[in-house]
Write a structure and sequence with these properties.
Structural class: mainly beta
Radius of gyration: 35 Å
Number of helices: 1
Strand content: 35-45%
Strand order of the largest sheet: 1-2-9-6-7
Number of strands: 10
Shape: elongated
Distance between the termini: 92 Å
Helix content: 10-25%
Order of helices and strands: HEEEEEEEEEE
């Protein structure tokens, strides 16, 4: 009887192995993954531009603290990107006194593409940087104000508008 069971068990194992390999199949089905990437831009300005009161005789110009500028652009390869800044007018005090906006200049240190120097204007946007293609561009812009004896005492302010564009 042992002999008979042995043959039956061996036959079942052979049939099981043969049926598994004969019927094993691999199925495939392709699927397409898509991603939508649009053009985008972002400007991040960190810091403040403050000019403390100093003696014009000893300090004919006043340096403000550095303004960190980051320009991010996701555009087509080869597309132009421009960063500009424009003043909303002259520096003005609450009493109506003014400091000419042309007395405000800047120097820039950072990534290539940033203009090294510039003079503020309210008549036209002034170029801060120009690049080609997508990327992140970082620099520090240090503003300088002419310190003139002709300024009337007061607290002055002006709005500066940065604009990032790509045609």
């Amino acid at each position: 009887m042992r002999k008979t069971l042995w043959h039956v068990g061996l036959s079942t194992a052979v049939v099981l192995l043969m049926s598994t390999s004969a019927y094993a199949q691999i199925a495939t089905q392709p699927i397409t993954a898509t991603a939508v990437v649009g053009a985008r831009g972002r400007i991040t300005l960190t810091g403040t531009i403050n000019f403390p009161d100093t003696d014009p005789f000893t300090n004919p110009t006043i340096n403000g603290a550095g303004l960190t500028v980051q320009a991010l652009a996701r555009v087509a390869v080869g597309a132009g990107v421009s960063l500009t800044v424009q003043a909303g007018g002259n520096f003005v005090s609450p009493g109506g006194d003014a400091i000419p906006i042309g007395n405000l200049t800047w120097g820039t240190a950072g990534d290539t593409g940033f203009n090294a120097t510039g003079t503020m204007s309210s008549a036209a946007a002034q170029p801060v940087g120009n690049w080609t293609g997508p990327g992140a561009h970082n620099a520090t812009q240090t503003y300088t104000l002419v310190n003139d004896w002709a300024y009337a005492p007061g607290n002055y302010s002006v709005t500066l508008t940065y604009t990032l564009t790509s045609p």
